[in-house]
Structure formats: structure tokens, C-alpha cells
């Protein structure tokens, strides 16, 4: 594979690089704020994960056959658009998703959830390099990563927030399950899900939502995320990293597989009207 890889090739919205033999960096650049939609997931993110996993597994198999204890190392860093320091991602591109009723019905169960399940159980350590605001579905993507490195917010605002409560959007089952898996404290769950609190970087660190804070621009966040990934990359050598996560996050994975249609406020009210 020749890097960098831009996907999709006709209108790139992600770029995948391979700066060292054990590090892959996936950069989101669907516009300035890297909104998430079906095209981003199906035509860019999933193919990028295919490339990374295929490359890593080829090296891992070779290392396993030759008893090379270092050859199976690997880590993936996911970052918002380089060259700006404002957004990791602004979440779902809801207007585009909801504009097509058929697409809206299949987006959660057939597009979004398979990606979240795959990221949650990816076979090498994953690190979210949160270089700016991280809202809604983007926060779920970051939580699906194994580690989170965030700008410290000293030079610009940067918030983590599940903002759905503020505009009346219900969660897919998968979102709630991932929050429960990655945010075990019920008080923090309440703050995240029911209050839609905008966590500053220090608050996110104190709550355990992120693992490291970094002073500096996007490149500084990437450098720290890469260092974090490299520090645990050797743990992928045995081949059990993703296998263990499938058991560790079994409840979230099974919940995501149960998601059918995204419940809306209107459907909830209609059901209550029929019941009461």
C-alpha cells in the first residue's frame, strides 16, 4: 500500500498516513468541522480501517511465523482536520441524514453501528487525538477509542459534549451502551447524557473522559497521541487486543446490534398517546 491514502478517491474527506512502521494516522476533513455522515463512514472510514487492519495483520502474521516479538506492533490515531485547531468533529450531519427517509432509517443499524462496533474492538490500540470541539456522535467515536488525548484548551475553547438533550434528539441504543461502558460513574453519566454538559478539557480529564491533556496546536496533540499509542503498541503483538475487547465491551456490542430504528421524540410521544 502506498501512503498517503485519500478516501473516497473522487472527493477525499479523510487522509490516512503511515508515518512510522507501527503508526497509522487517520485525519478527518469532511469540511472544516468533520461532520459524520453515511459517505464518511461507508466510503472513507470503513475502507481506511480495512487498509490499516490488512497492513497490520500481514505484518503480524509474518512476525508470528518468524517468532519476531516486535513485528506485530501497531497503533491507530484518529484526529480532526490538520491545519485547524477548532474541531475534532461536530458530530452527525443530521440535516443530510434526515433529508432522505430511507437513508435515515438505515443509517443507525446498517451504517453507524457497524462502524462503532468495529472501532470499539479494533485489533490494535486506538487513540483519539481530540484537537478541538468534540460533539455528540463524535464524542461517541472518541469514546470507542482505547485512549483519548485532548488539547488543554489554554489557547482556544474546546468542549466535549453530548448535545442531543438540548435539541430534543433521542439516543440510539448504541450511544447509551457505549456511554455506560466507557463512563461508569452514574453522576458523570447523568452530566453527559441528561444535562448535556459542555466539558472543558480540564473537566473532561477530571471526569475520566480523556486520558491526557496537551498544550499546543493540532500537531502537538497528534504527537502526544502517537506517543501514547506507541507506548502500548507492543500489546498488539500477541493478537489478543481486539479479542479481549469483544468480551470487555460485550454489553455495548450486543446493544448496538439490537438497534433497529432511531427513536424520535415524536414517535415516543405517539406511543405515550396510544398508551395513556
From TrEMBL:
SUPFAM superfamilies: ClpP/crotonase. Belongs to the enoyl-CoA hydratase/isomerase family. It comes from the Eukaryota. This is ClpP/crotonase. One of its GO terms (cellular component) is peroxisome. GO terms for biological process: fatty acid beta-oxidation. InterPro entries: ClpP/crotonase-like_dom_sf, Enoyl-CoA_hyd/isom_CS, Enoyl-CoA_hydra/iso. One of its GO terms (molecular function) is delta(3)-delta(2)-enoyl-CoA isomerase activity.
Amino acid at each position: 500500500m502506498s501512503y498517503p491514502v485519500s478516501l473516497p478517491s473522487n472527493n477525499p474527506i479523510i487522509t490516512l498516513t503511515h508515518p512510522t512502521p507501527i503508526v497509522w494516522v487517520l485525519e478527518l476533513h469532511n469540511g472544516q468541522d468533520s461532520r459524520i455522515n453515511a459517505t464518511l463512514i461507508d466510503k472513507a472510514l470503513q475502507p481506511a480501517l480495512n487498509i490499516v487492519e490488512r497492513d497490520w495483520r500481514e505484518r503480524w502474521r509474518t512476525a508470528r511465523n518468524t517468532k519476531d516479538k516486535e513485528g506485530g506492533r501497531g497503533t491507530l490515531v484518529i484526529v480532526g482536520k490538520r491545519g485547524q485547531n477548532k474541531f475534532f468533529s461536530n458530530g452527525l450531519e443530521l440535516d443530510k441524514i434526515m433529508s432522505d427517509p430511507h437513508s435515515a432509517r438505515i443509517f443507525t443499524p446498517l451504517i453507524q453501528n457497524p462502524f462503532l462496533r468495529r472501532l470499539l474492538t479494533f485489533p490494535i490500540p486506538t487513540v483519539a487525538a481530540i484537537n478541538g470541539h468534540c460533539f455528540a456522535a463524535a464524542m461517541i467515536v472518541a469514546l470507542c477509542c482505547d485512549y483519548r488525548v485532548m488539547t488543554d484548551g489554554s489557547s482556544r475553547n474546546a468542549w466535549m459534549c453530548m448535545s442531543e438533550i438540548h435539541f430534543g434528539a433521542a439516543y440510539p441504543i448504541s450511544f447509551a451502551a457505549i456511554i455506560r461502558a466507557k463512563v461508569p460513574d452514574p453522576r458523570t453519566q447523568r452530566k453527559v447524557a441528561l444535562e448535556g454538559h459542555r466539558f472543558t478539557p480540564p473537566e473532561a480529564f477530571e471526569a475520566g473522559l480523556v486520558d491526557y491533556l496537551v498544550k499546543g496546536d493540532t500537531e502537538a496533540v497528534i504527537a502526544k497521541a502517537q506517543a501514547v499509542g506507541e507506548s502500548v503498541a507492543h500489546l498488539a503483538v500477541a493478537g489478543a487486543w481486539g479479542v479481549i475487547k469483544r468480551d470487555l465491551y460485550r454489553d455495548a456490542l450486543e446493544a448496538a446490534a439490537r438497534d433497529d430504528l432511531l427513536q424520535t421524540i415524536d414517535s415516543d410521544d405517539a406511543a405515550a398517546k396510544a398508551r395513556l
